[in-house]
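Write out the bound-state structure for alpha-D-glucopyranose.
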Amino acid sequence: MRVSSPTERRLAALGPRLRRQLERLYGSTGLAIWPRLEAILRERAAERPAAMAALDEARLADPDWFVAPDMLGYSTYVDRFAGTVEGLIGHVDHLESLGVRYLHLLALLKAREGDSDGGFAVADYLSVEPRLGTMADVERLAARLREGRISLCVDLALNHTADDHAWAQAARDGDPHYRAFYHVLGDDEAQAYEADLLQVFPTTAPGNFTHVPAMGGQVWTTFYPFQWDLNWANPEVMLAIVDTMLRLANHGFEAFRLDSIAFLWKQLGTDCRNRPQAHYIVRALRAALDIVAPATLLKAEAIVPTALVPPYFGADEGSDWDGGFEPECHLVYNNSLMVAGWVGLAEQSAALPHAIVAASGGLPRGANWLSYARCHDDIGWGAVIGDLAGIDPDPVARLTIAAKFLDGADGSWARGEPFQSDGSVLHGSNGTMASLAGLEAARTDEEREHAFRRIALLNALSIASGGLATLYMGDEAGLLNDHSYRDDPDRAHEGRWLHRPVMDWDALDRVAALRISGDIRALRTARIASGGAGAPATIATSTSALLGIACGSDRVFLNFSPHAVQVGDLAGWHDRVADTPIGDDAMIGPWSVLWAGPSA
Ligand code: GLC
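---
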Protein backbone atom coordinates (compact mmCIF):
# COMPACT_ATOMS: atom_id res chain seq x y z
CA MET A 1 0.00 0.00 0.00
CA ARG A 2 1.22 3.48 -0.89
CA VAL A 3 2.11 5.96 1.81
CA SER A 4 -0.33 8.86 1.53
CA SER A 5 1.93 11.61 0.14
CA PRO A 6 0.58 15.05 -0.79
CA THR A 7 0.57 13.92 -4.43
CA GLU A 8 -1.41 10.77 -3.63
CA ARG A 9 -3.93 12.82 -1.69
CA ARG A 10 -4.25 15.29 -4.55
CA LEU A 11 -4.47 12.46 -7.06
CA ALA A 12 -7.35 10.95 -5.10
CA ALA A 13 -9.10 14.31 -4.84
CA LEU A 14 -8.49 15.70 -8.34
CA GLY A 15 -8.00 12.54 -10.38
CA PRO A 16 -11.75 12.39 -11.10
CA ARG A 17 -11.60 15.90 -12.58
CA LEU A 18 -8.79 14.81 -14.89
CA ARG A 19 -10.51 11.55 -15.85
CA ARG A 20 -13.69 13.46 -16.64
CA GLN A 21 -11.84 15.50 -19.28
CA LEU A 22 -10.32 12.37 -20.81
CA GLU A 23 -13.75 10.79 -21.08
CA ARG A 24 -15.20 13.91 -22.66
CA LEU A 25 -12.37 14.15 -25.16
CA TYR A 26 -11.74 10.53 -26.03
CA GLY A 27 -14.63 8.46 -24.70
CA SER A 28 -13.64 5.04 -23.40
CA THR A 29 -10.24 5.19 -25.15
CA GLY A 30 -9.54 8.13 -22.88
CA LEU A 31 -9.98 6.00 -19.82
CA ALA A 32 -7.73 3.36 -21.36
CA ILE A 33 -4.78 5.80 -21.12
CA TRP A 34 -5.51 6.57 -17.47
CA PRO A 35 -3.03 4.05 -15.99
CA ARG A 36 -0.24 5.48 -18.17
CA LEU A 37 -1.21 9.04 -17.29
CA GLU A 38 -1.29 8.17 -13.61
CA ALA A 39 2.18 6.67 -13.92
CA ILE A 40 3.46 9.90 -15.53
CA LEU A 41 1.96 11.98 -12.73
CA ARG A 42 3.58 9.80 -10.07
CA GLU A 43 6.97 9.75 -11.79
CA ARG A 44 7.11 13.49 -12.27
CA ALA A 45 5.88 14.07 -8.71
CA ALA A 46 8.66 11.83 -7.41
CA GLU A 47 11.20 13.98 -9.29
CA ARG A 48 9.84 17.29 -8.03
CA PRO A 49 12.68 19.22 -6.38
CA ALA A 50 12.24 19.97 -2.68
CA ALA A 51 12.24 23.75 -3.23
CA MET A 52 9.38 23.42 -5.73
CA ALA A 53 7.44 21.05 -3.46
CA ALA A 54 7.77 23.62 -0.66
CA LEU A 55 6.44 26.29 -3.03
CA ASP A 56 3.51 23.99 -3.83
CA GLU A 57 2.54 23.83 -0.18
CA ALA A 58 2.96 27.58 0.35
CA ARG A 59 0.79 28.44 -2.61
CA LEU A 60 -1.90 25.92 -1.79
CA ALA A 61 -2.21 27.75 1.51
CA ASP A 62 -2.48 31.10 -0.35
CA PRO A 63 -4.17 30.38 -3.69
CA ASP A 64 -4.72 34.07 -4.48
CA TRP A 65 -1.01 34.84 -4.12
CA PHE A 66 -0.72 36.23 -7.65
CA VAL A 67 -3.86 38.39 -7.43
CA ALA A 68 -2.02 40.98 -5.40
CA PRO A 69 -1.70 44.77 -5.77
CA ASP A 70 2.09 44.58 -6.06
CA MET A 71 2.13 42.11 -8.96
CA LEU A 72 3.83 43.43 -12.08
CA GLY A 73 4.98 41.37 -15.05
CA TYR A 74 7.68 41.71 -17.69
CA SER A 75 7.91 39.90 -20.99
CA THR A 76 11.01 39.62 -23.12
CA TYR A 77 13.07 37.66 -25.59
CA VAL A 78 16.18 36.44 -23.81
CA ASP A 79 18.60 37.28 -26.61
CA ARG A 80 17.22 40.75 -27.23
CA PHE A 81 17.27 41.60 -23.53
CA ALA A 82 20.49 40.08 -22.32
CA GLY A 83 22.11 37.86 -24.97
CA THR A 84 21.94 34.66 -22.93
CA VAL A 85 20.25 33.19 -19.88
CA GLU A 86 23.49 33.74 -17.97
CA GLY A 87 23.46 37.38 -19.11
CA LEU A 88 19.88 37.70 -17.93
CA ILE A 89 20.87 36.67 -14.42
CA GLY A 90 23.06 39.79 -14.43
CA HIS A 91 20.05 41.98 -15.24
CA VAL A 92 17.58 40.73 -12.64
CA ASP A 93 18.32 43.90 -10.69
CA HIS A 94 16.72 45.94 -13.49
CA LEU A 95 13.54 43.89 -13.10
CA GLU A 96 13.65 44.27 -9.34
CA SER A 97 14.06 48.03 -9.66
CA LEU A 98 10.78 48.16 -11.60
CA GLY A 99 9.01 45.97 -9.05
CA VAL A 100 8.62 43.00 -11.40
CA ARG A 101 7.26 39.80 -9.82
CA TYR A 102 6.61 37.74 -12.90
CA LEU A 103 8.93 37.21 -15.87
CA HIS A 104 7.78 35.74 -19.18
CA LEU A 105 10.67 34.63 -21.38
CA LEU A 106 9.91 34.33 -25.07
CA ALA A 107 11.69 31.96 -27.44
CA LEU A 108 13.56 30.20 -24.65
CA LEU A 109 13.13 26.60 -25.77
CA LYS A 110 15.04 25.06 -28.64
CA ALA A 111 13.55 26.40 -31.84
CA ARG A 112 13.62 25.25 -35.41
CA GLU A 113 16.65 26.13 -37.53
CA GLY A 114 16.18 29.28 -39.63
CA ASP A 115 12.85 31.08 -39.42
CA SER A 116 11.04 29.90 -36.28
CA ASP A 117 8.20 32.41 -35.91
CA GLY A 118 10.11 34.18 -33.15
CA GLY A 119 10.75 30.87 -31.37
CA PHE A 120 7.16 29.63 -31.59
CA ALA A 121 8.21 26.73 -33.82
CA VAL A 122 9.65 24.55 -31.07
CA ALA A 123 12.04 21.76 -32.05
CA ASP A 124 12.52 20.42 -28.53
CA TYR A 125 10.41 21.42 -25.55
CA LEU A 126 12.89 20.03 -23.05
CA SER A 127 16.03 21.84 -24.25
CA VAL A 128 16.94 25.46 -24.09
CA GLU A 129 17.79 27.18 -27.36
CA PRO A 130 21.54 26.43 -27.55
CA ARG A 131 22.45 30.04 -28.42
CA LEU A 132 20.95 31.10 -25.10
CA GLY A 133 22.33 28.53 -22.69
CA THR A 134 21.29 25.31 -21.03
CA MET A 135 18.54 24.05 -18.76
CA ALA A 136 21.05 24.21 -15.91
CA ASP A 137 21.39 27.96 -16.58
CA VAL A 138 17.61 28.27 -16.50
CA GLU A 139 17.44 26.45 -13.17
CA ARG A 140 19.97 28.91 -11.75
CA LEU A 141 18.02 31.82 -13.19
CA ALA A 142 14.75 30.49 -11.71
CA ALA A 143 16.38 30.12 -8.29
CA ARG A 144 17.79 33.68 -8.47
CA LEU A 145 14.36 34.98 -9.51
CA ARG A 146 12.65 33.14 -6.66
CA GLU A 147 14.94 34.97 -4.22
CA GLY A 148 13.47 38.19 -5.61
CA ARG A 149 9.89 36.76 -5.51
CA ILE A 150 9.79 36.73 -9.31
CA SER A 151 7.99 33.79 -10.95
CA LEU A 152 9.43 32.50 -14.20
CA CYS A 153 7.04 31.83 -17.09
CA VAL A 154 7.78 29.98 -20.32
CA ASP A 155 5.75 29.48 -23.48
CA LEU A 156 4.15 26.12 -23.98
CA ALA A 157 3.35 26.16 -27.69
CA LEU A 158 0.91 23.29 -27.65
CA ASN A 159 -1.01 23.87 -30.84
CA HIS A 160 1.96 22.94 -33.00
CA THR A 161 5.54 21.74 -33.08
CA ALA A 162 8.23 22.76 -35.51
CA ASP A 163 8.51 20.61 -38.61
CA ASP A 164 11.94 19.50 -37.36
CA HIS A 165 10.73 18.40 -33.91
CA ALA A 166 11.63 14.71 -33.33
CA TRP A 167 7.92 13.82 -33.48
CA ALA A 168 7.55 15.49 -36.88
CA GLN A 169 10.74 13.91 -38.17
CA ALA A 170 9.58 10.45 -37.09
CA ALA A 171 6.21 11.12 -38.74
CA ARG A 172 7.96 12.14 -41.96
CA ASP A 173 10.05 8.98 -41.77
CA GLY A 174 6.85 6.95 -41.78
CA ASP A 175 6.44 6.06 -38.09
CA PRO A 176 2.65 5.60 -37.73
CA HIS A 177 2.69 6.43 -34.01
CA TYR A 178 4.07 9.90 -34.66
CA ARG A 179 2.23 10.44 -37.93
CA ALA A 180 -0.92 10.26 -35.79
CA PHE A 181 0.43 13.21 -33.74
CA TYR A 182 -0.41 15.48 -36.68
CA HIS A 183 -3.32 16.10 -39.03
CA VAL A 184 -2.65 14.78 -42.53
CA LEU A 185 -5.54 15.29 -44.93
CA GLY A 186 -6.36 14.65 -48.56
CA ASP A 187 -6.86 17.69 -50.83
CA ASP A 188 -10.67 17.50 -50.79
CA GLU A 189 -10.84 17.04 -47.06
CA ALA A 190 -8.53 19.98 -46.47
CA GLN A 191 -10.64 22.11 -48.77
CA ALA A 192 -13.80 21.14 -46.89
CA TYR A 193 -12.27 22.36 -43.62
CA GLU A 194 -10.80 25.45 -45.24
CA ALA A 195 -14.29 26.66 -46.20
CA ASP A 196 -14.97 27.64 -42.57
CA LEU A 197 -11.49 28.58 -41.40
CA LEU A 198 -10.08 32.06 -40.91
CA GLN A 199 -6.45 32.93 -41.60
CA VAL A 200 -3.90 34.07 -39.05
CA PHE A 201 -1.22 35.23 -41.49
CA PRO A 202 -3.19 35.88 -44.69
CA THR A 203 -0.38 37.62 -46.54
CA THR A 204 2.77 35.75 -45.43
CA ALA A 205 1.26 32.28 -44.85
CA PRO A 206 -2.11 32.10 -46.59
CA GLY A 207 -4.35 29.09 -45.97
CA ASN A 208 -4.29 26.57 -43.16
CA PHE A 209 -2.69 23.56 -44.85
CA THR A 210 0.70 22.77 -46.35
CA HIS A 211 1.30 20.01 -48.84
CA VAL A 212 4.17 17.90 -47.49
CA PRO A 213 5.16 15.21 -50.00
CA ALA A 214 6.94 13.09 -47.36
CA MET A 215 3.68 12.97 -45.39
CA GLY A 216 1.65 12.13 -48.49
CA GLY A 217 -0.94 14.85 -47.98
CA GLN A 218 -1.90 18.21 -46.60
CA VAL A 219 -0.52 18.87 -43.12
CA TRP A 220 -2.56 21.20 -40.95
CA THR A 221 -0.52 24.37 -40.43
CA THR A 222 -2.64 27.14 -38.92
CA PHE A 223 0.34 29.49 -38.63
CA TYR A 224 3.48 29.13 -40.76
CA PRO A 225 4.01 26.07 -43.02
CA PHE A 226 6.80 24.93 -40.69
CA GLN A 227 4.47 24.86 -37.65
CA TRP A 228 2.59 21.56 -37.75
CA ASP A 229 -0.62 21.51 -35.72
CA LEU A 230 -0.78 18.70 -33.17
CA ASN A 231 -3.68 16.29 -33.36
CA TRP A 232 -5.20 16.60 -29.90
CA ALA A 233 -7.90 14.10 -30.83
CA ASN A 234 -5.11 11.55 -30.33
CA PRO A 235 -4.78 10.77 -26.59
CA GLU A 236 -1.06 10.04 -27.13
CA VAL A 237 -0.60 13.78 -27.71
CA MET A 238 -2.21 14.46 -24.34
CA LEU A 239 0.18 12.03 -22.64
CA ALA A 240 3.21 13.53 -24.36
CA ILE A 241 2.32 17.13 -23.55
CA VAL A 242 1.34 16.46 -19.93
CA ASP A 243 4.68 14.71 -19.44
CA THR A 244 6.54 17.60 -21.11
CA MET A 245 4.74 20.23 -19.07
CA LEU A 246 5.44 18.51 -15.76
CA ARG A 247 9.11 18.00 -16.61
CA LEU A 248 9.38 21.73 -17.37
CA ALA A 249 7.62 22.60 -14.10
CA ASN A 250 10.25 20.55 -12.29
CA HIS A 251 12.99 22.64 -13.91
CA GLY A 252 11.70 25.65 -11.99
CA PHE A 253 9.13 27.26 -14.27
CA GLU A 254 6.26 28.63 -12.22
CA ALA A 255 3.95 29.55 -15.09
CA PHE A 256 3.13 28.35 -18.56
CA ARG A 257 1.86 30.61 -21.27
CA LEU A 258 -0.43 28.35 -23.24
CA ASP A 259 0.16 29.62 -26.73
CA SER A 260 -2.68 29.78 -29.27
CA ILE A 261 -5.01 27.62 -27.21
CA ALA A 262 -8.13 28.59 -29.10
CA PHE A 263 -6.99 26.41 -32.02
CA LEU A 264 -6.46 23.04 -30.35
CA TRP A 265 -9.54 21.17 -31.52
CA LYS A 266 -10.57 20.73 -35.14
CA GLN A 267 -14.14 20.08 -36.17
CA LEU A 268 -15.45 20.12 -39.71
CA GLY A 269 -18.00 22.83 -40.42
CA THR A 270 -16.64 25.15 -37.71
CA ASP A 271 -13.86 27.74 -37.63
CA CYS A 272 -11.96 25.28 -35.39
CA ARG A 273 -11.47 27.91 -32.70
CA ASN A 274 -12.70 27.89 -29.09
CA ARG A 275 -14.32 24.45 -29.41
CA PRO A 276 -15.58 22.97 -26.13
CA GLN A 277 -12.88 20.29 -26.45
CA ALA A 278 -10.15 22.97 -26.44
CA HIS A 279 -11.46 23.84 -22.98
CA TYR A 280 -11.47 20.20 -21.85
CA ILE A 281 -7.82 19.93 -22.91
CA VAL A 282 -6.88 22.97 -20.84
CA ARG A 283 -8.85 21.62 -17.88
CA ALA A 284 -6.96 18.35 -18.13
CA LEU A 285 -3.61 20.18 -18.12
CA ARG A 286 -4.76 22.23 -15.14
CA ALA A 287 -5.82 19.13 -13.22
CA ALA A 288 -2.47 17.44 -13.93
CA LEU A 289 -0.63 20.52 -12.64
CA ASP A 290 -2.89 20.82 -9.62
CA ILE A 291 -1.95 17.25 -8.72
CA VAL A 292 1.80 17.31 -9.35
CA ALA A 293 2.93 20.95 -9.34
CA PRO A 294 0.18 23.09 -7.81
CA ALA A 295 2.47 26.11 -7.41
CA THR A 296 2.35 26.51 -11.18
CA LEU A 297 0.16 29.00 -13.01
CA LEU A 298 -1.46 28.51 -16.38
CA LYS A 299 -1.90 31.55 -18.58
CA ALA A 300 -4.17 31.52 -21.61
CA GLU A 301 -3.23 33.23 -24.81
CA ALA A 302 -6.53 33.30 -26.67
CA ILE A 303 -6.70 36.22 -29.05
CA VAL A 304 -10.38 35.87 -29.80
CA PRO A 305 -13.54 38.01 -29.57
CA THR A 306 -14.09 39.43 -26.07
CA ALA A 307 -17.12 37.29 -25.26
CA LEU A 308 -15.22 34.05 -25.95
CA VAL A 309 -12.30 34.87 -23.63
CA PRO A 310 -13.66 34.41 -20.05
CA PRO A 311 -14.39 30.68 -20.55
CA TYR A 312 -10.61 30.16 -20.51
CA PHE A 313 -10.76 30.79 -16.76
CA GLY A 314 -12.95 27.68 -16.50
CA ALA A 315 -16.67 27.10 -16.19
CA ASP A 316 -19.34 25.98 -13.84
CA GLU A 317 -20.47 22.61 -15.04
CA GLY A 318 -23.50 22.32 -12.78
CA SER A 319 -24.15 20.03 -9.87
CA ASP A 320 -23.78 16.57 -11.35
CA TRP A 321 -20.45 16.17 -9.58
CA ASP A 322 -18.68 17.68 -6.58
CA GLY A 323 -17.64 21.29 -6.69
CA GLY A 324 -19.27 22.47 -9.91
CA PHE A 325 -16.50 24.78 -11.14
CA GLU A 326 -13.87 23.31 -13.43
CA PRO A 327 -10.85 25.63 -13.53
CA GLU A 328 -8.73 26.24 -16.63
CA CYS A 329 -6.22 29.09 -16.53
CA HIS A 330 -5.23 31.24 -13.56
CA LEU A 331 -4.40 34.08 -15.91
CA VAL A 332 -5.91 35.08 -19.23
CA TYR A 333 -4.62 37.87 -21.48
CA ASN A 334 -7.07 40.76 -21.58
CA ASN A 335 -6.31 41.32 -25.25
CA SER A 336 -9.49 43.33 -25.83
CA LEU A 337 -8.53 45.83 -23.14
CA MET A 338 -5.14 46.31 -24.79
CA VAL A 339 -6.77 46.89 -28.19
CA ALA A 340 -9.35 49.21 -26.62
CA GLY A 341 -6.66 51.38 -25.09
CA TRP A 342 -5.13 52.06 -28.49
CA VAL A 343 -8.54 52.62 -30.10
CA GLY A 344 -9.29 55.04 -27.27
CA LEU A 345 -6.13 57.01 -28.00
CA ALA A 346 -6.80 57.12 -31.72
CA GLU A 347 -10.43 58.15 -31.22
CA GLN A 348 -9.83 60.49 -28.28
CA SER A 349 -12.67 58.67 -26.58
CA ALA A 350 -13.03 56.34 -23.61
CA ALA A 351 -16.10 54.63 -25.09
CA LEU A 352 -14.44 51.34 -26.03
CA PRO A 353 -12.08 51.15 -23.01
CA HIS A 354 -15.14 51.73 -20.81
CA ALA A 355 -17.04 48.91 -22.52
CA ILE A 356 -14.16 46.47 -22.12
CA VAL A 357 -13.41 47.33 -18.49
CA ALA A 358 -17.14 46.88 -17.81
CA ALA A 359 -17.02 43.48 -19.54
CA SER A 360 -13.95 42.36 -17.53
CA GLY A 361 -15.61 41.90 -14.14
CA GLY A 362 -16.77 38.70 -12.48
CA LEU A 363 -13.55 36.68 -12.28
CA PRO A 364 -13.56 33.36 -10.45
CA ARG A 365 -11.53 33.12 -7.25
CA GLY A 366 -7.83 32.38 -7.74
CA ALA A 367 -7.80 33.98 -11.18
CA ASN A 368 -6.88 37.28 -12.74
CA TRP A 369 -6.48 39.04 -16.05
CA LEU A 370 -3.09 39.59 -17.50
CA SER A 371 -3.28 43.18 -18.65
CA TYR A 372 -0.81 44.86 -20.98
CA ALA A 373 -0.36 47.78 -23.32
CA ARG A 374 2.01 46.10 -25.79
CA CYS A 375 3.54 42.67 -26.28
CA HIS A 376 5.68 40.93 -28.91
CA ASP A 377 2.68 40.52 -31.23
CA ASP A 378 0.73 42.96 -33.36
CA ILE A 379 -2.35 44.78 -32.12
CA GLY A 380 -5.08 42.67 -33.73
CA TRP A 381 -8.10 44.87 -34.33
CA GLY A 382 -10.67 42.15 -34.99
CA ALA A 383 -11.11 41.06 -31.35
CA VAL A 384 -13.26 44.06 -30.46
CA ILE A 385 -15.59 44.20 -33.47
CA GLY A 386 -18.39 42.68 -31.38
CA ASP A 387 -17.89 45.18 -28.55
CA LEU A 388 -18.00 48.13 -30.92
CA ALA A 389 -21.15 46.85 -32.55
CA GLY A 390 -23.08 48.12 -29.51
CA ILE A 391 -21.51 51.56 -29.94
CA ASP A 392 -21.34 51.98 -33.71
CA PRO A 393 -23.41 50.47 -36.55
CA ASP A 394 -20.27 49.96 -38.65
CA PRO A 395 -17.56 48.71 -36.27
CA VAL A 396 -15.17 47.56 -38.99
CA ALA A 397 -15.15 50.98 -40.64
CA ARG A 398 -14.61 52.59 -37.27
CA LEU A 399 -11.74 50.29 -36.38
CA THR A 400 -10.19 50.80 -39.79
CA ILE A 401 -10.03 54.54 -39.13
CA ALA A 402 -8.40 53.93 -35.72
CA ALA A 403 -5.92 51.45 -37.22
CA LYS A 404 -4.95 53.88 -39.99
CA PHE A 405 -4.43 56.62 -37.45
CA LEU A 406 -2.05 54.41 -35.44
CA ASP A 407 -0.36 53.34 -38.65
CA GLY A 408 0.61 56.98 -39.16
CA ALA A 409 -2.15 58.43 -41.35
CA ASP A 410 -1.76 62.10 -42.26
CA GLY A 411 -1.66 64.29 -39.19
CA SER A 412 -1.18 61.36 -36.82
CA TRP A 413 1.46 61.37 -34.12
CA ALA A 414 1.62 57.56 -34.23
CA ARG A 415 4.23 55.62 -36.22
CA GLY A 416 2.79 52.11 -36.46
CA GLU A 417 2.77 49.89 -39.54
CA PRO A 418 0.00 47.64 -40.82
CA PHE A 419 0.42 43.90 -40.23
CA GLN A 420 -0.96 41.33 -42.66
CA SER A 421 -3.19 43.98 -44.23
CA ASP A 422 -2.97 45.19 -47.78
CA GLY A 423 -4.42 48.58 -46.87
CA SER A 424 -8.03 47.61 -47.49
CA VAL A 425 -8.34 44.75 -45.00
CA LEU A 426 -8.43 45.29 -41.25
CA HIS A 427 -5.95 42.99 -39.51
CA GLY A 428 -3.24 44.27 -37.19
CA SER A 429 -0.73 47.00 -36.46
CA ASN A 430 2.87 46.81 -35.37
CA GLY A 431 5.06 49.29 -33.51
CA THR A 432 6.65 49.81 -30.13
CA MET A 433 4.65 51.51 -27.45
CA ALA A 434 6.73 54.68 -27.70
CA SER A 435 6.50 54.90 -31.50
CA LEU A 436 2.76 54.23 -31.45
CA ALA A 437 2.23 56.77 -28.69
CA GLY A 438 4.01 59.58 -30.50
CA LEU A 439 7.55 59.67 -29.14
CA GLU A 440 9.14 58.82 -32.49
CA ALA A 441 7.30 61.60 -34.30
CA ALA A 442 7.65 64.19 -31.51
CA ARG A 443 9.79 67.20 -32.45
CA THR A 444 9.03 69.68 -29.66
CA ASP A 445 9.10 69.42 -25.89
CA GLU A 446 5.33 69.72 -25.86
CA GLU A 447 4.93 66.85 -28.33
CA ARG A 448 7.31 64.72 -26.28
CA GLU A 449 5.36 65.54 -23.14
CA HIS A 450 2.15 64.45 -24.84
CA ALA A 451 3.77 61.17 -25.92
CA PHE A 452 4.92 60.50 -22.35
CA ARG A 453 1.40 61.14 -21.13
CA ARG A 454 -0.13 58.74 -23.67
CA ILE A 455 2.33 56.07 -22.59
CA ALA A 456 1.49 56.63 -18.93
CA LEU A 457 -2.21 56.61 -19.80
CA LEU A 458 -2.05 53.14 -21.32
CA ASN A 459 0.17 51.86 -18.52
CA ALA A 460 -2.40 53.25 -16.09
CA LEU A 461 -5.19 51.43 -17.92
CA SER A 462 -3.26 48.20 -17.52
CA ILE A 463 -2.29 48.77 -13.87
CA ALA A 464 -5.49 50.38 -12.53
CA SER A 465 -7.73 47.74 -14.07
CA GLY A 466 -6.41 45.26 -11.50
CA GLY A 467 -4.75 42.70 -13.77
CA LEU A 468 -1.25 41.33 -13.62
CA ALA A 469 0.02 44.31 -15.59
CA THR A 470 2.84 43.11 -17.82
CA LEU A 471 5.38 45.36 -19.50
CA TYR A 472 6.98 44.44 -22.78
CA MET A 473 10.76 44.75 -22.80
CA GLY A 474 12.04 48.12 -23.90
CA ASP A 475 8.73 49.91 -23.43
CA GLU A 476 9.88 51.04 -19.98
CA ALA A 477 12.80 52.75 -21.75
CA GLY A 478 10.76 54.26 -24.59
CA LEU A 479 12.55 52.23 -27.28
CA LEU A 480 11.45 53.18 -30.80
CA ASN A 481 10.60 51.01 -33.81
CA ASP A 482 13.50 48.87 -35.04
CA HIS A 483 13.60 48.51 -38.82
CA SER A 484 16.76 46.38 -38.94
CA TYR A 485 14.80 43.13 -39.35
CA ARG A 486 14.31 44.05 -42.99
CA ASP A 487 17.97 43.20 -43.65
CA ASP A 488 17.71 39.70 -42.16
CA PRO A 489 16.43 37.11 -44.67
CA ASP A 490 14.83 35.03 -41.87
CA ARG A 491 12.87 37.96 -40.49
CA ALA A 492 12.35 40.38 -43.38
CA HIS A 493 8.84 39.09 -44.17
CA GLU A 494 7.65 39.36 -40.56
CA GLY A 495 6.62 42.90 -39.59
CA ARG A 496 6.25 42.09 -35.89
CA TRP A 497 10.04 42.39 -35.55
CA LEU A 498 9.45 46.15 -35.83
CA HIS A 499 8.57 46.19 -32.14
CA ARG A 500 11.05 43.60 -30.91
CA PRO A 501 14.14 45.81 -30.55
CA VAL A 502 17.34 44.89 -28.73
CA MET A 503 17.48 46.37 -25.24
CA ASP A 504 19.49 49.57 -25.19
CA TRP A 505 20.97 49.57 -21.69
CA ASP A 506 22.48 53.02 -22.23
CA ALA A 507 19.01 54.41 -22.88
CA LEU A 508 17.98 53.74 -19.30
CA ASP A 509 19.70 56.90 -18.07
CA ARG A 510 18.13 59.10 -20.70
CA VAL A 511 15.21 61.45 -20.19
CA ALA A 512 12.63 59.23 -21.89
CA ALA A 513 13.43 56.13 -19.86
CA LEU A 514 13.62 58.04 -16.60
CA ARG A 515 10.25 59.62 -17.26
CA ILE A 516 8.46 56.49 -18.49
CA SER A 517 9.81 54.10 -15.88
CA GLY A 518 9.27 56.76 -13.19
CA ASP A 519 5.61 56.94 -14.21
CA ILE A 520 5.33 53.15 -14.11
CA ARG A 521 6.79 53.03 -10.60
CA ALA A 522 4.43 55.78 -9.44
CA LEU A 523 1.40 53.97 -10.85
CA ARG A 524 2.46 50.71 -9.22
CA THR A 525 3.03 52.46 -5.89
CA ALA A 526 -0.44 54.00 -6.13
CA ARG A 527 -2.00 50.63 -6.86
CA ILE A 528 -0.27 49.05 -3.88
CA ALA A 529 -1.60 51.85 -1.67
CA SER A 530 -5.11 51.30 -3.06
CA GLY A 531 -5.01 47.59 -2.23
CA GLY A 532 -6.61 46.93 -5.62
CA ALA A 533 -6.15 43.77 -7.70
CA GLY A 534 -8.48 41.46 -9.57
CA ALA A 535 -11.68 42.15 -11.47
CA PRO A 536 -12.10 45.83 -12.39
CA ALA A 537 -15.19 48.03 -12.19
CA THR A 538 -16.00 51.25 -13.99
CA ILE A 539 -17.03 54.56 -12.44
CA ALA A 540 -19.45 56.82 -14.31
CA THR A 541 -17.90 60.05 -15.59
CA SER A 542 -19.31 63.27 -16.98
CA THR A 543 -17.70 63.07 -20.43
CA SER A 544 -17.07 60.32 -22.94
CA ALA A 545 -13.36 61.25 -23.08
CA LEU A 546 -12.92 60.22 -19.47
CA LEU A 547 -12.64 56.65 -18.19
CA GLY A 548 -13.21 56.05 -14.49
CA ILE A 549 -11.94 52.83 -12.86
CA ALA A 550 -12.46 51.73 -9.26
CA CYS A 551 -9.18 50.23 -8.00
CA GLY A 552 -9.31 49.00 -4.41
CA SER A 553 -10.10 52.02 -2.24
CA ASP A 554 -9.24 54.39 -5.10
CA ARG A 555 -10.78 56.06 -8.11
CA VAL A 556 -8.64 56.39 -11.18
CA PHE A 557 -9.53 58.73 -14.04
CA LEU A 558 -8.00 58.52 -17.50
CA ASN A 559 -8.45 61.34 -19.99
CA PHE A 560 -8.26 60.03 -23.55
CA SER A 561 -8.66 63.46 -25.13
CA PRO A 562 -6.13 66.16 -26.02
CA HIS A 563 -8.09 68.68 -23.92
CA ALA A 564 -8.27 69.27 -20.19
CA VAL A 565 -11.59 68.03 -18.80
CA GLN A 566 -13.42 68.38 -15.52
CA VAL A 567 -13.52 65.30 -13.31
CA GLY A 568 -16.18 66.45 -10.89
CA ASP A 569 -16.32 66.70 -7.14
CA LEU A 570 -13.38 64.96 -5.54
CA ALA A 571 -13.27 66.95 -2.34
CA GLY A 572 -11.83 64.76 0.40
CA TRP A 573 -9.71 62.82 -2.09
CA HIS A 574 -5.96 62.87 -2.47
CA ASP A 575 -3.85 62.68 -5.66
CA ARG A 576 -1.67 59.69 -4.89
CA VAL A 577 0.90 60.44 -7.59
CA ALA A 578 1.34 64.19 -7.00
CA ASP A 579 0.73 63.70 -3.26
CA THR A 580 -1.60 66.70 -3.08
CA PRO A 581 -5.23 67.16 -2.02
CA ILE A 582 -7.81 67.26 -4.82
CA GLY A 583 -10.42 70.02 -4.88
CA ASP A 584 -14.16 69.96 -5.52
CA ASP A 585 -13.93 70.83 -9.23
CA ALA A 586 -10.84 68.86 -10.19
CA MET A 587 -9.51 69.17 -13.73
CA ILE A 588 -7.49 66.58 -15.54
CA GLY A 589 -5.02 67.57 -18.28
CA PRO A 590 -4.76 66.26 -21.87
CA TRP A 591 -4.04 62.50 -21.97
CA SER A 592 -3.52 62.56 -18.23
CA VAL A 593 -4.26 60.27 -15.33
CA LEU A 594 -5.68 61.31 -11.98
CA TRP A 595 -5.20 58.60 -9.36
CA ALA A 596 -7.38 59.57 -6.41
CA GLY A 597 -7.19 57.90 -3.02
CA PRO A 598 -9.29 58.74 0.01
CA SER A 599 -7.62 61.39 2.18
CA ALA A 600 -6.17 59.95 5.35
C1 GLC B 1 1.04 33.23 -30.48
C2 GLC B 1 2.33 34.01 -30.35
C3 GLC B 1 2.74 34.48 -31.70
C4 GLC B 1 2.92 33.29 -32.62
C5 GLC B 1 1.69 32.38 -32.62
C6 GLC B 1 1.98 31.04 -33.23
O1 GLC B 1 0.01 34.00 -30.93
O2 GLC B 1 2.17 35.07 -29.45
O3 GLC B 1 3.90 35.26 -31.64
O4 GLC B 1 3.15 33.73 -33.92
O5 GLC B 1 1.24 32.13 -31.32
O6 GLC B 1 2.75 30.25 -32.36
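---
Residues 117-118, 120, 157, 223, 259-260, 301, 376-377 surround alpha-D-glucopyranose (CB under 6 Å).
The mean pLDDT is 96.
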